[in-house]
Amino acid sequence: MDLQVAIDRVTLDKAVALVKQLDTKVDTIELGTSLVKDYGLEQIHAALPTLTHAKLLLDLKTIDEGVYEFEKGFVVGDILTAMGAGAPDMLSGVYQVAESAHKQLFIDLMETADDRIAKIADFTHAIYGIHHAKDSQAGFDAAATVADFHQKFPQVQHVSVAGGINLNMAQKLARQGIAESVIVGSAIVKTADPVAAAQTFMEAIH
Fold first, then answer.
1. What is the pLDDT of residues 74-116, one digit of tens each?
2. Spatial separation of the C-alpha atoms in residues 42 and 40, rounded to whole Å
3. Residues 4-37: tens digit of each pLDDT
4. Separation CA 199–CA 188 (nearest Å)
5. 59, 33 Cβ separation under 8 angstroms
6. For 175-197, what is each residue's pLDDT tens digit?
7. What SS3 class is residue 79?
8. Which of the 8 DSSP states describes residue 93?
9. Rounded distance, CA 156 to CA 180, Å?
10. φ, ψ (nearest 5 deg) of residue 184
11. Residues with Cβ < 8 Å from 53, sequence gap 6 or more?
12. Which residue intervals of the chain are DSSP H helices?
């Protein structure tokens, strides 16, 4: 299982410093929606170093203007996110952009109902992100949710999960063997030593 580290709600300088620290330590580095909104693709592109190991995910959360946003976004990143709640034509469009660019679409399934997912579950190379909203007050069992998702949508080949993932849950998900990647934010980037925290997670899931 891969480790994706989410960087969000920090200054661009801080984000760049974290990217440099984590590039060779983790599989994917995510720059969150707030960073994209605060600084924009052009500033981010100008400030970021070229990554030597990790893939770069930009959490655009695209729901409209999909082809335009993805053509711009793939100049900067390797993986871009679009909302599962968006129009099927939008998702088809961004998937085609991703395929043409030899990069990846990440479909954020936050607040996306099962009947809706069933209609968009056939993008073979897309990552389907089970995402517990930060603003949601309900409890979230990532492993149980992933198992339920896999039972309902066994055709989905690439599953990722986010939402308050701690070390124990990351280990549980790795043992479960369904999710292809786990997304960790605060438990790594808000620690005194993000590199050591990332290494601990990497050791736990491999």
1. 999 999 999 999 999 999 999 999 999 999 999 999 989 999 9
2. 6
3. 999 999 999 999 999 999 999 999 999 999 999 9
4. 9
5. yes
6. 999 999 999 999 999 999 999 99
7. strand
8. H
9. 11
10. -125, 130
11. 23, 24
12. 12-22, 33-47, 66-73, 88-101, 114-119, 142-152, 167-176, 186-189, 194-205
Cβ-based burial of 176 (10 A; exposed 0-12, middle 13-18, buried ≥19): middle
| Cα 31 to Cα 97, 146, 182, 189, 195, distances in angstroms | 20, 23, 15, 12, 17
Residue 102 carries which side chain, given as an amino acid letter? H
- Cα 11 from chain centroid? 20
Q: What is the CA radius of gyration of the chain?
A: 16
In angstroms, rounded to a whole number, what is the distance separating the alpha carbons of residues 33 and 12? 12
What tokens does 143 get? Answer: 């492993």
Q: What are the two backbone dihedrals, phi and then psi, of residue 146, each rounded to the nearest 5 degrees?
A: -65, -45
**How many CA atoms, within 13 angstroms, populate the side-chain half-sphere of residue 45?**
10
Determine the Cα–Cα distance for residues 194 and 197; give it in Å rounded to an integer.
5
